[in-house]
Automatic annotation (TrEMBL):
<dbReference type="InterPro" id="IPR015422">
    <property type="entry name" value="PyrdxlP-dep_Trfase_small"/>
</dbReference>
<comment type="similarity">
    <text>Belongs to the class-II pyridoxal-phosphate-dependent aminotransferase family. Histidinol-phosphate aminotransferase subfamily.</text>
</comment>
<keyword id="KW-0028">Amino-acid biosynthesis</keyword>
<dbReference type="InterPro" id="IPR015421">
    <property type="entry name" value="PyrdxlP-dep_Trfase_major"/>
</dbReference>
<feature type="domain" description="Aminotransferase class I/classII large">
    <location>
        <begin position="36"/>
        <end position="361"/>
    </location>
</feature>
<keyword id="KW-0368">Histidine biosynthesis</keyword>
<dbReference type="InterPro" id="IPR004839">
    <property type="entry name" value="Aminotransferase_I/II_large"/>
</dbReference>
<dbReference type="GO" id="GO:0030170">
    <property type="term" value="F:pyridoxal phosphate binding"/>
</dbReference>
<dbReference type="InterPro" id="IPR005861">
    <property type="entry name" value="HisP_aminotrans"/>
</dbReference>
<dbReference type="GO" id="GO:0000105">
    <property type="term" value="P:L-histidine biosynthetic process"/>
</dbReference>
<comment type="pathway">
    <text>Amino-acid biosynthesis; L-histidine biosynthesis; L-histidine from 5-phospho-alpha-D-ribose 1-diphosphate: step 7/9.</text>
</comment>
<dbReference type="Pfam" id="PF00155">
    <property type="entry name" value="Aminotran_1_2"/>
</dbReference>
<protein>
    <recommendedName>
        <fullName>Histidinol-phosphate aminotransferase</fullName>
        <ecNumber>2.6.1.9</ecNumber>
    </recommendedName>
</protein>
<dbReference type="InterPro" id="IPR050106">
    <property type="entry name" value="HistidinolP_aminotransfase"/>
</dbReference>
<keyword id="KW-0032">Aminotransferase</keyword>
<comment type="subunit">
    <text>Homodimer.</text>
</comment>
<keyword id="KW-0808">Transferase</keyword>
Length: 370
């Protein structure tokens, strides 16, 4: 027997599969020998990064012989001003992904439970499995709307975290302010609410909230934000959390000292103040969503109305074939099997030309396949 097979990984890892991201553009180009590839699979910003962030990165390049600021002081100050919280209520991490892992490491004991309205972002489950905790999935209601009563009924003595992803990935549906308030008031005091607002900037509903007001009111909630979506900085990996000082202090105990590199910190500090880029990205997304809705309706496809920068589309029993056919034409979308949604694909909002190309390709693929 080769020596490496005698080395046993931790038992809890039996539940974990390595994360499967959306296929990168270069891989599809290489595999299919295509020049033009459209990626609408990972909910990235089709407008590109904030130009101010790019400038900031260029200016900082010569300083990368130094370690980054372990405390992300400048960025925390900016976030504090923008959110009207204190820097001590902020933690900056290597993407929101890292923060989910850190929260899991900080709060989950063996056999604790997390509640995840499902289907949702897979990293919540990953964090729980890593710690030997259990995942209690609570299905969304009709049209993937949040079911507050069902979430509350799933709570036990062992429940440590309730995840609320709003707008939710992959459904695009959201939790109204009224329902968030109700949940926070009804949950027992040993439960931490992790409110994942990765897509908050795209939400246009009047009754949407990203939950920061509840941090201010002292509820046991941590709000997650990322620079990967609206700010267009997915490639440099940076996100942050907002919570009470006590919650943040505990999470800091498990954070690596230099988890966020210098270029990411300066880019994020510039991007958070680039209102022009944020507003342009919001407007483009709202229009792009409408373009997709109209196109899907013309194709006779049903979709879930989205408060985010992606749309979940019901394609039917041939969804996997449609996904593969689109891929062969150089269009990368996300197939829904990751979430147990075998008849669906999730499509990120691209720029107008990308949306148009996608819709035309879908029309011909649907004709050939279905
Ligand atoms: C709901 C949700 N939360 C968090 C993340 C992770 O963001 P980051 O790129 O900051 O790790 C994603 C990324 O797709 C997401 O969809």
């Amino acid at each position: 027997m080769p020596i490496h097979e005698t080395i046993q990984a931790r038992k809890v890892l039996e539940h974990i599969q390595p994360y499967l991201p959306g296929k990168p553009i270069w891989e599809v180009q290489e595999e299919l020998g295509l020049d033009q590839v459209i990626k609408v699979a990972s909910n990235e910003n089709p407008l590109g990064p904030s130009p101010k962030a790019l400038e900031a990165i260029l200016v900082s390049l010569t300083g990368i012989n130094r370690y980054p600021d372990a405390n992300a002081t400048d960025l925390k100050r900016q976030i504090a001003v923008r959110s009207n919280l204190s820097p001590e209520q902020i933690i900056v991490t290597n993407g929101a992904d890292e923060l989910i892992t850190l929260i899991s490491e900080t709060f989950l004991n063996l056999n604790d439970e997390i509640i995840v309205p499902s289907p949702s972002f897979s990293e919540y489950d990953f964090g729980a499995y890593l710690m030997g905790a259990k995942v209690v999935g609570v299905p969304f209601g009709e049209d993937y709307q949040y079911n507050v009563e069902a979430i509350l009924s799933a709570v036990t003595q062992r429940t440590k975290i309730v995840y609320l992803c709003s707008p939710n990935n992959p459904t695009g549906t959201y939790l109204s302010k009224k329902h968030l308030h109700k949940l926070l008031d009804s949950l027992p005091k040993h439960v931490l609410v992790v409110f994942d607002g990765a897509y908050s900037h795209y939400a246009t509903a009047d009754d949407y909230t990203v939950g920061i007001e509840y941090v201010k009111l002292g509820y046991p909630i941590i709000v997650l934000q990322t620079f990967s979506k609206i700010y267009g900085l997915a490639g440099v990996r940076i996100g942050f959390g907002l919570a009470s000082e006590a919650i943040v202090q505990n999470i800091l105990k498990v954070k690596e000292p230099f988890n966020v590199n210098t270029l990411a910190q300066v880019a994020a500090t510039a991007a958070i103040n680039d209102d022009k880029h944020v507003e342009a990205s919001q407007e483009a997304n709202t229009l792009g969503r409408l373009q997709l809705y109209e196109g899907f309706s013309k194709l006779g496809l049903s979709y879930t109305e989205s408060m985010s920068n992606f749309v979940l589309v019901r394609v039917g029993p041939k969804a996997k074939d449609v996904y593969e056919e689109l891929l062969s034409k150089g269009i990368i979308v996300r197939y829904g099997d990751t979430w147990g949604l075998e008849e669906y694909i999730r499509i990120s909002v691209g720029n107008p030309k990308e949306n148009d190309t996608l819709l035309k390709a879908m029309a011909s693929v649907l004709q050939e396949t279905c």
